[in-house]
Design goal:
single chain; alpha/beta; 6-stranded mixed sheet; 21 helices; disordered N terminus; binds 4-O-methyl-beta-D-glucopyranuronic acid
Length: about 950
């Protein structure tokens, strides 16, 4: 019997046919695969559905040749198959637009002609067949026609339902396969999207069977086959059976009709432009393909802060085009709706969800939608949250609102994903009982059992808001009679916005594995979502993707997060490291050193980011009222947003205990509540989320809280620097353009990790007054402050927040219109161009400002880091000079938040191996541009041998 073990892992299936292993033994031990010399990149297929190829009557046995010792001779079919599947494939670099699905012909891969035949003719099966054609995997015969660079997949006898013995890979639904191969045993748990990969041998013809529970399962099976082949896995004999863990495997896009994307960091929308759906939806189709390849089956297309007009008739017709583009990939369209739509769009006097006219309006709207989009998936709702209208305006509950929408969708099979992200953002920070973390449970737990069957409550993984670490939301255990989905962020809003490498799978996996001990029984979050714990048929994972036109997520390595999200939504029992491994093999290289290096970088990246941004459960200590990017510790304090960490001179942390705090800890089932109630038993990495503690409180390893904060930030920043070296170590194995792209990102990250480190360390050092046992806080050997330099033109400024600049100060080059009291009476005008020999010259009328230091340290070879602010609204130019000689010019043209110098845009550029002796002058020239005032924080010299010199 076929069996599926937990969450879709493959399970052994007894063979019912020939012992293939015996048959597959190579006949020659010195067999060497060779390929023609003129093997080159193939012509990409422009459409996922090119016109059908003429049917190929047979895949002739003589096409399976390899060259041995200059002679061609036939190989037995079974051997060909085994070798095909066994040869490790050296995947090359990606282009980001095809991400992990960039299929390349390579010169070191040996491939053969293999036929593929689908038993059915559905669109999804055709997608599956064509995907195999596109994959360049084993479906070509180099000796037949070496000059033929197009895909030579032979799609054998495409006539549906006709049984013959031709195909080498046969695709079909369970029913179709059973009809054609009645002797085949395909058993085990099933469900929508499930698939079997197996093999049969008939009349000495070896075939791989891709059987899907439904057409979608066929497509997933084909992608699974490709995934394994591309990783070079030996899969013959093949026996795989997978069933997706969750029915809901959705991505949410937060795209606005004008083409902007809330919390998107990869350019403009692929869906919308200028208020309408984009004309060109080719990228949407390509995106659908990526999503399908990892099993994602739903896409909610617009921002949860929903633009009401998207539900009007004109826009619905446009949205139908998006649904059409996604349909060949089995990805169903969903949309966010504003609860006030019946009033704003429908012209009713109210949007009270219990008003009969409102209910009728939603029902009619649903009918209209399904006429246009018959497979429409459903609505996502953000209501009574961050200014969005909601049922509370009428004294109604989220269940009232959700059920009205659910009733409208139910006749069509649609669902409502109602977000539990409902909270008051005008909380009273004086009140120790006030706590935003409590909101979801306080509001939704009392409604358990009141939601319609097609409502799924969608809860963020933690009780606050996608922070670098939070405890798991207690609501997952608090809804026993309600379908649930967990929302995570793929787009890195609070985790470095794709400028920092942060592989999020370990964080998600930690949440999925957390055992909430509901009713004192094992109840890991992943099983609650799967419906196992509370017997709910619906549930799943939703990932806020934020993909845009710039290579989906802009950063090539960030795509590992999109991939991992899909894989975990399919099977939450996969480990983040095995997912990292398979992503790397398909995307970067199958070289074992590359795989090990990249996997290690990915796995270390989230812990490193946590260490340098917000350890001990403090959450990301970022600017929570602005960019959500750079450090800004006090932005969380003393305002209504409720992300307080209550730092004062004596201690830090939010008291969420039942005994003395907000009582949040008591929302967990008793076993966990007990653990979190005491600082003794709370895990260190969540300590300050639950407890307000003195800086001198000792952690489990005996280290004080303050010393841990210092150490953690230094350790995290040092790890970020290591990522650069790790990547450099594999340069020869990496595609050059990918290498350069990622290297620049990692170097930037290493510099910004220092900004984070210094901001948080100097903030807590000043607040606590407690010295760093290792002497680092407040001491920066080799650092020369800009405000201490001889300045021409530059003015000293206070940076806000102060911790974002070294000692809180920087220098900025004023605009010609700025009143410049510092310059008054000096006769100096900063608005003249300096001679060309002094580095980059300013355009006519623009000032060049300079900061100059005299080197008083030891003679030697140094690296000089310049810490400057790369501001929005211009591209300032900088030059580093030594003794008047330019060493390096660069332009501050990165796209970073804010027009004001702060931790969002503080950037480090390092010039290496510069010889210096005492008395040498070091100078930085800055030429502002627009609102980028060429602001400068400091320079820092380290010995090129890495030892810091004494200034
Ligand atoms: O994290 C916050 C984001 C908002 C977002 C909100 C939400 C779409 O900063 O941009 O709004 O969460 O999840 O609704």
């Amino acid at each position: 019997m076929l069996q599926k073990n937990m969450g879709g892992r493959e399970a052994p299936m007894p063979l019912k046919k020939i012992d293939l292993l015996r048959k597959l033994k190579p006949t020659s031990s010195n067999w060497v695969p060779q390929v023609p010399r003129n093997w080159g990149p193939g012509k990409p297929l422009t459409s996922p559905h090119p016109p059908s190829q003429p049917s190929d009557p047979l895949c002739p046995i003589h096409s399976r040749f390899v060259r041995m010792g200059g002679k061609a001779r036939p190989l037995p079919r079974a051997l060909v198959f085994a070798l095909l599947l066994a040869i490790p494939l050296a995947a090359q670099a990606q282009t980001a637009d095809q991400a992990w699905l960039k299929y390349e012909k390579t010169t070191d891969r040996h491939i053969f002609s293999i036929c593929v035949r689908s038993l059915g003719n559905s669109t999804l099966q055709q997608s599956a067949v064509q995907e195999l054609a596109r994959s360049h995997l084993g479906f070509e015969n180099p000796l037949d026609d070496p000059s033929n660079q197009t895909s030579s997949l032979r799609i054998c006898n495409p006539a549906p339902g006709i049984r013959d013995d031709i195909g080498d890979v046969i695709l079909g639904t369970l029913a179709e396969v059973r009809r054609s191969y009645p002797q085949l045993v395909l058993a085990g748990r099933s469900g929508p999207g499930a698939f079997w990969l197996t093999h049969v041998v008939e009349h000495d013809n070896h075939k791989i069977i891709v059987a899907g529970e439904d057409d979608q399962g066929v497509l997933y099976g084909a992608f699974a086959l490709i995934r394994r082949l591309r990783q070079g896995q030996l899969i013959y004999p093949i026996e795989i059976h997978e069933v997706p863990a969750y029915p809901i495997r959705w991505v949410d896009e937060w795209d606005n009709p004008d083409g902007s994307i809330e919390r998107g960091y990869a350019g403009r929308s692929i869906f919308f432009e200028g208020g309408n759906v984009s004309d060109d939806l080719a990228p949407v189709s390509e995106y659908g393909r990526l999503l399908a390849s990892v099993g994602i089956n739903g896409l909610n297309v617009n921002n949860v802060n929903a633009a009401p007009q998207l539900i009007d008739s004109g826009h619905l017709r446009q949205l139908a085009r998006i649904a059409d583009a996604l349909r060949p990939w089995g990805v169903r369209l969903a949309m966010s709706v504003a609860i006030a739509s019946p009033q704003t769009i429908g012209g009713l006097k109210t949007y009270d969800p219990l008003d009969p006219a409102v209910k009728a309006w939603w029902a009619a709207k649903a009918n209209e939608i399904y006429t246009l989009i018959p497979d429409f998936a459903g609505f996502t709702v953000k209501a009574d949250s961050e200014g969005q209208p909601g049922p509370a305006s009428f004294g109604r509950t989220p269940a009232d609102a959700a059920n009205t929408l659910a009733a409208a969708l139910a006749p069509h099979g649609g669902v409502v994903l109602y977000r539990a992200f409902v909270y008051n953002h005008h909380l009273d920070w004086h009140d120790p009982k006030a706590d935003r973390a409590r909101a979801a449970y306080d509001i939704f737990h009392p409604l358990d059992g009141k939601f319609a069957a097609n409502v799924i409550v969608q809860t963020k993984e933690g009780p606050i808001d996608f922070q670098v670490r939070e405890p798991v939301s207690p609501l997952f255990a608090g809804l026993e009679h309600t379908a649930q989905a967990m929302e995570v962020q793929i787009t890195q809003e609070y985790t470095g916005q794709q400028r920092h490498l942060v592989y999020l799978a370990p964080m998600w996996k930690g949440v999925l594995d957390t055992d909430l001990r509901a009713n004192s029984q094992p109840s890991p979050v992943k099983e609650i979502l799967e419906g196992k714990t509370f017997h709910q048929p619906l549930g799943g994972l939703v990932g806020v993707a934020g993909i845009g036109r710039d290579r989906w997520l802009r950063s090539p390595l960030a795509l590992a997060n999109l991939y991992a999200f899909g894989r975990l939504a399919w099977n939450p029992n996969l480990s983040p490291s095995e997912i990292a491994d398979e992503w790397t093999r398909q995307t970067i290289s199958t070289n074992s050193v590359v795989v090990a290096t990249v996997e290690n970088m990915l796995m270390q990246s989230w812990p490193a980011y946590e260490r340098y941004t917000g350890p001990l459960g403090l959450q990301t200590l970022t600017d929570i009222t602005g960019s959500h990017y750079g450090p800004n510790i006090e932005s969380s304090e003393r305002n209504g947003w409720g992300q307080w960490h209550d730092a004062d001179a004596l201690g830090v942390g939010k008291d969420r205990t039942v005994a003395t705090g907000s009582g949040y800890a008591g929302q967990y089932p008793p076993e966990l509540a007990k653990i979190y109630e005491s600082e003794e038993t709370t895990p260190d990495d969540l300590l300050l989320f639950f407890h307000h503690l003195p800086y001198t409180y000792k952690l489990h390893d005996g280290k004080t809280v303050i010393q841990y904060l210092y150490d953690s930030h230094y350790q995290g920043a040092a790890q970020a620097a290591e990522f650069v070296k790790d990547w450099q170590s594999i340069q020869p194995q990496i595609d050059p353009s990918l290498y350069t792209d990622v290297l620049a990102r990692l170097e930037y990250q290493a510099g910004h990790a220092i900004v984070w480190r210094d901001a948080v360390v100097q903030y807590f050092f000043k607040l606590s007054g407690i010295p760093d046992a290792k002497g680092r806080a407040g001491h920066f050997p080799g650092r020369l402050e800009a405000e201490d330099a001889r300045l021409t033109g530059y003015q000293v400024i206070d940076v806000h927040p102060w911790e974002d600049a070294s000692r809180g100060k920087a220098v900025s080059c004023p605009t010609p219109t700025q009143n410049d009291p510092a310059m008054k009476g000096t006769g100096f005008s900063p608005y003249v161009n300096t001679p060309k020999s002094s580095g980059a010259s300013a355009p006519e009328g623009m000032p060049t400002c300079t900061a100059q230091w005299t080197w008083t340290g030891a003679t030697g070879r140094y690296n000089i880091a310049v810490q400057y602010f790369d501001l929005e609204g211009g591209a300032a130019k900088f030059t580093l000079l030594v003794n008047g000689q330019p060493i390096s010019n660069w332009t501050a043209d990165a796209s970073l938040p804010s027009t004001h110098p702060n931790g969002d845009n503080s950037t480090r550029k390092t010039m290496r191996d510069i010889d210096l002796k005492a008395g040498d002058t070091i100078q930085v020239n800055g030429i502002p541009d627009g609102s980028d005032r060429a602001a400068l924080d400091y320079i820092e010299l380290t010995s090129a041998g890495n030892a810091a010199p004494k200034p």
